[in-house]
TrEMBL record:
GO-annotated biological processes: transmembrane transport
Species per Swiss-Prot/TrEMBL record: Natrinema salaciae
Membrane in keyword set: yes
This protein's name: Peptide/nickel transport system permease protein
Key words of the record: Cell membrane, Membrane, Transmembrane, Transmembrane helix, Transport
Membrane-crossing segments per the record: 84-104, 162-188, 195-216, 228-248, 287-312, 332-355
Membrane topology reported for the UniProt record: Multi-pass membrane protein
Region of interest (Disordered), residue spans: 24-66
Predominant localisation class: membrane
Family stated for the protein in its record: Belongs to the binding-protein-dependent transport system permease family.
Lineage: Archaea, Methanobacteriati, Methanobacteriota, Stenosarchaea group, Halobacteria
Keyword Membrane: yes
The ABC transmembrane type-1 domain, residue ranges: 160-356
Amino acid sequence: MSDRDPSTERGRIRIVGFDEAVSDRFGDEAGAANSEATPETVPPTSPEAIAEAESETETTGETVPAGRHRLEDAWRRFRRDRTAMVGLGIIVAMTVLAVFARPIEVSTAEVTIRLQPFSLAPYDPGETFVAPANAPPSWAHPFGTDWAGRDQFSRVLVGGRYTLGIGLVAVVLALGVGVPLGAIAGYFGGWTDEVIMRVVDVLYAFPFLVLAIAIVPILEPLPVLGDGFWTVVTALVVTGWLGYARLLRGEVLSVREREYVTAARALGVPDRTIVRRHVVPNAITPVVVQATLNVGTVVLAAAALGFLGLGLEPGSTEWGAMLSQGRSSLVQGHWHVTVFPGLAIFLFVLAINLVGDGVNDALDPHRDAADERRRMR
């Protein structure tokens, strides 16, 4: 049984290798004195082995649990949020319907391989006159048909591949650009920070959608991007990384001044290791929340580009393009041609917002304590 008062251990930060560093700097007596003050036996190790689980303390003074435990606590809080779980269920259902809407094939010069042989969509989305043009919803065609007699239900299912794919891929790639640049700007400062932030300021002077509309025609002639999918994704990445870089930079400016970062520098840990293992993991939470919410924004932007006829090929099943194609039918009174693609966009963006709010609450380490105080009142 330890004789130490547990209250004196609260908030303590113990750095592996610190005793050896003190001994080298001030002599063996100082190192021995520090070892006596910390009875635990710590094996000698390199500076890179700074203990991650004890690198940060919460404002309450208690040691922050290891990353695995923080994720477990966040998932537990997220599961208790019913609206967030409903949103997650909607996203999963829509993603499954989109992925399995039509067979997935990989073609080479010699052979075609079907990765997913079955189809949830009852008709080929490009097949015309499967029923009379602009036919209203029925049992055979739940969403009706468009001006060319194509089944709208099949087209909405397949169109989810484009719209949802653009949203998810664009956000992931934008994170891949914005997070490293924001971390570099915030940690190193100086001229590097000035250059990156001035580029962000210049691009931020243009409205998000207007800048994307201007970029798409520039990218379309480039053969390296292939079809319109990657043209739209690239345009949205160019305009989307700015917010992540600026947000992470602000968080890094705060985290880099904390004691465990200063201690890591004193022990000679390389800057690259400090940024990767200690700075970014403790600054990334607001960026994760923002990225979750931005998926909906990017989906709306992709739909807007499709509505304007930019990026994807004419006749595409992308939801925004379907809205554009159905304008003439809507004027003629055929409401179903545009209502169902619009509802699909609305439902997915709503689900993303519900999940984003849930992620924001789940990643708040003080959420449980605040809820407990409210229940006690």
